[in-house]
Amino acid sequence: MLFIEQPLAHADLNALARLTRISSIPIGADEGIHSLADIEAHERCGAGGVSLKLIKLGGMSAAVEAAQLCQRLGLSINIAAKIAESSIASAAAIHLACAAPAVDWGVSLTHFYLAEDIARNPLAIGDGAVALPAGPGLGIEVDEAQVERFKLSTSALPG
């Protein structure tokens, strides 16, 4: 087993410190990682690594900086997506994984859970691997017809 992800409430750093002292399996922090300070706090409590998410860290630059900090602190990294993101978000996560100094705990993508994607050619996963998309930007072409199809009008929203 590589690690156990977030076995405790994310804000209970005292419990994390107690658990990491007795666990032979590295503990990975996820829900509590929103900044460099969060990474440092979890490292001080003995976390073996963290899950980095673009949406929680505020974008690519901040996430690359977080990955570099993890390397300096000796923390393992998992690049993770939120549940059921499109191929667009997954492509961004793949770019982050390629920019990070190391991704010891892998890349967790979720676009393949979608029944339909808004990418013209959704990212393909084969044998547990996905390639860095080629092309401008993230390498993903948005299917504008799909976007239009899934668009909600504000009158359709509750409240």
Written description of the protein model:
The chain is of the alpha/beta class and 159 residues long. The protein is built from 6 helices and 5 strands, in the order E-H-E-H-E-H-H-E-H-E-H. Strands 1-2-3-4-5 form a 5-stranded parallel beta sheet. It starts with a strand and ends in a 9-residue tail after the last helix. The model has no long low-confidence stretch (mean pLDDT 93).
Give a brief rundown of this model.
The chain has 159 residues and is of the alpha/beta class.
Euclidean distance between termini CA atoms? 45 Å
Major beta sheet, strand line-up = 1-2-3-4-5
Work out the helix count. 6
Low-confidence stretches: none
Approximately how much beta-strand content do the residues carry?
5-15%
Major beta-sheet overview: 5 strands, parallel
Order of helices and strands: EHEHEHHEHEH
Radius of gyration: 17 Å
Q: What's the structural blueprint in terms of helices and strands?
A:
Elements: E1 4-5, H1 13-22, E2 27-29, H2 36-44, E3 49-52, H3 54-57, H4 60-73, E4 76-80, H5 87-99, E5 107-108, H6 144-150
Parallel strand pairs: 1-2, 2-3, 3-4, 4-5
Helix pairs in contact: 2-4
